[in-house]
Amino acid sequence: MNRVVVITGASAGIGEAIARELGRRGDRLVLAARSADALHRVARETGPHTHVVTADVRHRADVEGIRDEAITTFGGIDVWINNAGRGIVRPVLDLSDEDLDEMISVNVKSALYGMQAVIPHFIERGGGHIINLSSFLGRVPVAPLRSAYSAAKAALNTLTANIRVDLQRTHPGIHVSLVMPGLVATDFARHAIGSTGVIPTGPIGSPMATQSPHEVATIVADLIDHPAAEVYTNPASSSLAKRYFEDVGAFEAEAYTPR
User: Fold this and answer.
1) Phi first, then psi: what are they for 177, rounded to 5°?
2) What is the mean pLDDT of residues 225-239?
3) Would strands 28-33 and 50-54 be described as parallel, antiparallel, or unpaired?
4) Helical ranges in 126-206 per DSSP H
5) What is the pLDDT of residue 192?
6) Which residues, listed in sequence order, are joined to residue 96 by a DSSP beta bridge?
7) Residue range 8-42, pLDDT digits in tens
8) Using CA atoms, how far apart are residues 157 and 198, in angstroms rounded to an integer?
9) Which of 82, 124, 170, 245 could make an S-S bridge to 114, C-beta 3.0–4.6 Å?
C-alpha cells in the first residue's frame, strides 16, 4: 500500500473508478486529464494524498510533465496507468485520415509516451509497474462500427507485449500489464467520435455482461498487488477469445447471423 500511482484519463469512467479504489486503500495518486474541474472533483473524493495535473496526453511534453510533477511531489513513481482513451463509431470505408490519426494519438501514442517517460525512472529505481488499459475489441475485433478504435487497441496490445518481453530480459523488476475490459457502464460510448448517444451492445449472440467501472477498478487494484501479463476483466472474454482464434470465420458467421 501507499504506492505512488499515476493515472491518465482520471477525470471520469474507469480512470475515476481506479482513482477512487486506490485512494480508498491509501495509495498516493497523481491524476491527469484535460479537464481541471473534473480532476479536482475526483481529487476531493479520493483522499488527502492526491495531486492533480492538467495535461493532454496526446502531447509528449505534457506526459513528461506528468512524470516530473509526480516525482517532484512524491519523490518517485511506483505504478503508471495508461488509461486515457477515446472511441469511434464509424465503419472502415467511412474513416477519414483525421479519424484514424485521433484514434492512434489518444489510444496508442499517449501510452507510448507514458511508457517512454516513466520506464527510465523505473530502471533507475530498480522496479515499477506499467498498466495499459486496452479493450477486448483489441483482441477480438467483432464490432465493425468500432473499427479504428479496435485497430488502435490492437496496436497497443502489441506494443505492450513487446516492451514486456524487452524488459523481462534486462529489468525483471519492472512489470508490464495489459488490461482488457469488455462492456463497461460509463459515458465512454456517448463521447465517441460519431456517436449518436445510443449505448451499443456487444456482438450479436455475445454472452458478455456489462460491468461497472468499480468492478474494473478492483481488478486493476488486485493487478497492482499481484502483477500479471494480461487480464480480461469480464469472465466471458477469455472463452470468447479462444473461440475466435480457433476459427475466425465460424465465429464471425455466428456473431453476425440475424436472429
Assistant:
1) -125, 150
2) 95
3) parallel
4) 147-170
5) 74
6) none
7) 999 999 999 999 999 999 999 999 999 999 999 99
8) 27
9) 82
4-255 — its CATH code?
Answer: 3.40.50.720
CB count within 10 Å of CB 69 equals: 17
pTM exceeds 0.85, yes or no? yes
**Residue 58 identity:** R
Question: Between the CA atoms of 128, 30, 2 and 83, what dihedral angle is there, to the nearest 10 degrees?
Answer: -60
Task: Return d(Cα 89, Cα 148) in angstroms, integer.
Answer: 9
- Residue ranges of domains in the chain: 4-255
Q: Do residues 118 and 80 make contact, with C-beta atoms less than 8 angstroms apart?
A: yes
Q: pLDDT tens digits for 117-175?
A: 999 999 999 999 999 999 999 999 988 899 999 999 999 999 999 999 999 999 999 99
CB atoms within 10 A of CB 76: 13
Cell (9 digits) for 7: 493515472
CB-based contacts of 89: which residues, under 8 Å, 6+ apart? 145, 146, 189, 192, 193, 194, 195, 196, 200
Q: Is 107 helix (H, G, I), strand (E, B) or coil?
A: helix
Give the ranges where 142-247 is alpha helix by DSSP (H): 147-170, 213-225, 235-246
The residue type found at 99 is D
Percent of the chain with pLDDT over 90: 81
3-state secondary structure of 209: coil
Catalytic residue among 113, 149, 232, 244: 149
CB atoms within 10 A of CB 255: 18
Query: Quick check: is 149 catalytic?
Result: yes
Amino acid at 255: A
